[in-house]
Amino acid sequence: MVPAARPLPLATQAVDRLIEALTRRTGLAPESAPAARARSFAAALPTDRLAAALLDLDAGRRSHDVDALLDHSTNRETYFFRDRRQLLLLERELSGMVRAASLPREITLWSAGCASGEEAYTLAVLGLRVLAGSGLATLTADGDVRFAGGWSLRVLGTDISADAIRRAGAPHFRAGPVAAFRDPSPGNLTHFRAVDGGFVPLPAVRRCVRFAVANILDGAPPGAPFDVVSCRNVLFYFAEAQRRRALSVLAAGTAEGGRLMFGSTDSGPDDPAFVPRHHEGAVVHARRA
What we know:
- This protein is an alpha/beta fold.
- The protein has 2 domains: 63 residues, no CATH class; 204 residues, 3-Layer(aba) Sandwich (Rossmann fold).
- It has 9 helices and 11 strands.
- Helix 1 packs parallel to helix 3 and helix 5 crosses helix 6.
């Protein structure tokens, strides 16, 4: 006779329920590495805090422990100018979009899952380069930017982690093999200033970028649709149903004639409204006008 399975300890049941709620909220696959990190954190919580965190998650409330769970469940592997070939392709595509614009306007970019800001600031640098190369923006002597009449640049960085967004809003980035600046060559540092052993974005970059705590699964943020939407190396960790939901949100957040960009670990949209643009192994997806 096979002995009956012993019931799980109450604490283990509470952790399981909390991680189930977390993965529903974030879209993470339960077996993913970020979900495993969150489980380790949850397992160390006292029973009363586990129960409170579960109630807060189910109600959509933020708390210290909920924020900590979300922090543990995010991937912080990010750095400036990541995947240079893809960025060069995006810069070329954005240059074409600017040249084709019939009237001066604001160029808008959304970095979804921006972590501590490196991706969003990279997009701002790229946008400033495009506008400067078209004669529509000039970097001033004090590090600020002057736009030609009617032109401007706006970059929004969003992340589900409140701690990541706080750090993005007070940027100070280190250089090194595993730091934010992995290739601190002079060309990469044009829009940054050396401060206290690291680098901070110049006012020209800071004034174009703002950050907000947001969950991709909740829909596109205010200001959508955007000329460029970038969500790199995020959806790889999602369960399939939530990945499809996130893809639909990102697609809806991309303006007609805009560009949608994913990381090398992610698959692009299965949507006839988007056409992949390839160059030297890199790809961005152009939304039909």
